Amino acid sequence: MSSETSSPTPDPEFLAAAAAQRRNTTTGEVIPDSSQLLRQHELRQMFRRLIDPGIYRPNSQEAFMASLKTLSRIAENLLREPENPKFRQFKSTNDMIRRRLIETKGALEYAIEMGFRPEVKEFQPLYVWNERRSEELRLGAQILQETIDLAEQKSARSQRNAAEAKVATEAATRNVLLAFMDDRKTKMLRDQRDRHTREAQAHHRSSSVDGEAAMSSSSPPSNAEMPGSGYTLSSSDPVVDGPPPYRD
Predict the structure, then answer these.
(1) What is the distance between the alpha carbons of residues 61 and 234, in angstroms, rounded to a whole number?
(2) Distances, alpha carbon 40 to alpha carbons 8, 18, 33, 150, in Å
(3) Which of 9, 43, 72, 114 is 20 to 30 A from 2 (CA-CA)?
(4) Burial level of 233, CB count in 10 A (0-12/13-18/19+)?
(5) What is d(CA 193, CA 200) in angstroms, rounded to the nearest whole number?
(6) Which H or E run includes 141?
(7) CA dihedral sign of residues 40, 42, 45, 49
(8) What is the per-residue pLDDT across 15-48, written as a single tens digit (0 to 9) for each?
């Protein structure tokens, strides 16, 4: 049984560029051929690797973003005014360049791949752009802007998520506080009701005791003599009164 060797899957970016070339073959525009498209794709991939892991991993997020924005500003200024000598070079002794390109790992390598080379002019160390590297400059600027846009979108999402999480936490804390206050109020009302019930029961018992005491004080003693003749409550033998004497 023969084994088949699968060919590598073409990169979507390369296929999209090739499709664009086919669509524009009748417009008369100068369109890069497949070898040029392949080289552009390889350059884009190289610049992406120079950014990550090149600049991204060994530096802080703040230093990473600062270096990308500085590189992008240098490239965009040069693309906008390629003949301006001020934009065709930068001093490595400049404080901002030193912090964002020289001291930030990987940043200077990116500038070099966009066409900047070290030179010394009038005893000044400079990095001067080679105009034969215009394609590298253009593609490097595109990848820089693409990365900056993605990073800013991610940062905006993170800030939005953090704000939403803060609102949710504050709402949960407020709900817990309200529930605690409700529990305290419920307990206070329950304690008040129980106190009133105890007071009513105590008052009822006190009224019952007072009533019994009043009844005991108003009843006659057991040895008291009843009016008239006959038995007395304390006598054991009856006392009989005889009839009154007869008189003529």
Answers:
(1) 115
(2) 19, 11, 11, 21
(3) 9
(4) exposed
(5) 11
(6) helix 134-218
(7) negative
(8) 665 555 555 545 555 566 788 999 999 999 999 9
Kindly provide the b/e burial profile for residues 44-70, where b requires at least 16 CB atoms within 10 angstroms of the residue's own CB.
bebbeebbeebbbeebeeebbbbbbeb
Token pair for 129: 């752009």
Write the single-letter amino acid at 226: M
Q: Write the pLDDT tens digit of every residue in 55-107.
A: 999 999 999 999 999 999 999 999 999 999 999 999 999 999 999 999 999 99
What angle, 0 to 180 degrees and rounded to 10, lies between the N-to-C axes of helices 34-49 and 12-23? Answer: 150
Residue whose pair of structure tokens reads 């304390």 in the numeric block: 234
User: Backbone dihedral region of 230: left (phi > 0), alpha (psi from -120 to 50 degrees) or beta?
Assistant: left
Alpha-carbon torsion 74, 77, 83, 87, what sign?
Answer: negative
- Residue 32 neighbours by CB distance under 10 Å: 15
- Burial class of residue 99 (count of CB atoms within 10 Å of its CB; 0-12, 13-18, 19+): middle
Q: Which amino acid is at 203?
A: H
Nearest to residue 51, comparing CAs of 105, 116, 118?
105
Specify the DSSP class assigned to residue 132.
G
Determine if the pTM surpasses 0.85: no
